Amino acid sequence: SAVISQKPSRDICQRGTSLTIQCQVDSQVTMMFWYRQQPGQSLTLIATANQGSEATYESGFVIDKFPISRPNLTFSTLTVSNMSPEDSSIYLCSVVILGMNEQYFGPGTRLTVT
Amino acid sequence: RKEVEQDPGPFNVPEGATVAFNCTYSNSASQSFFWYRQDCRKEPKLLMSVYSSGNEDGRFTAQLNRASQYISLLIRDSKLSDSATYLCVVNRGFGNEKLTFGTGTRLTIIP
Fold it and tell me: By the 8 A CB rule, do A54 and A63 touch?
């Protein structure tokens, strides 16, 4: 597996503001993804973070709301923009390690929007 | 029909018992199958991949039935530490690393 870190681990934000979440992994990875887990629900894929190019978004998620960067193979950021209480959720990054098939998850960022 | 369906439970099982979870998936093109466990307020952790011939890892046995599009997980000699939510996960097709998660089955092992 790999060591995956996310910052911040949690935050409480006011509506209308933006928060950028960082994901760093200590191994070579092929794929990086961002997920959301709303209270009491399972994980929903937001987008695939592509190195050096625009992320690939899933249906229902748009770049203006969730801009993503991946400047290199082991680091990515997700920004939650113009937040509303409905954005309160856990945001998780996941990676596929080079040579492996499985996905491993970061510890998540617990976001509360007031 | 949901892409991945699981019985949400809860399953309350005495310590030492055997428990089985089932999962069905709708995408016949799915090629990769996994069970993850998620503890309260933690990230999902990979429990095991599921192979066509079935596979075992200690007390855990996973089975795949492609014809019925059905996956199972069996836990033998359950421990208190097995209490968690178990997520059935499938990929979206051949060579597609995007995953679809079931809503999870909540298991509580009772002393």
Answer: yes
Between positions 44 and 103 of B, the ones with CB within 8 A of A are 44-46, 49, 87, 97-103
Would you mind telling me the total number of residues written for chain A in this entry?
114
Question: CA angle, corner B80, sides to B77 and B82, nearest 5?
Answer: 75
- Which of the residues B30, B37, B43, B48 would you substitute to probe the A interface, choosing the one with the greatest number of A C-beta atoms within 10 Å? B43
Pairs of CB atoms within 8 A across A/B:
40
The 10s digit of each residue's pLDDT in B91-104 is: 988 777 899 999 99
Half-sphere exposure of B38 (CA within 13 A, CB side): 28
Q: What is the pLDDT of residues B22-66, one digit of tens each?
A: 999 999 999 999 999 999 989 999 999 999 889 999 999 999 999
CA distance A62 to A55: 10
Among B49, B102, B104, whose Cβ lies nearest the Cβ of A102?
B49
Q: Tell me which residues of chain A have a C-beta less than 8 Å from any C-beta of chain B.
A: 1, 30-31, 33, 41-45, 48, 92, 96, 101-108, 110
Confidence (pLDDT) at A101: 82
Measured between alpha carbons, how far is residue B36 from residues A101, B47, B77 in Å? 14, 5, 19
Edge-first strand order for the sheet with A75-80 is: A4-7, A19-25, A75-80, A68-72
Residues A94, B98, B51: CA angle, nearest 5 degrees? 95
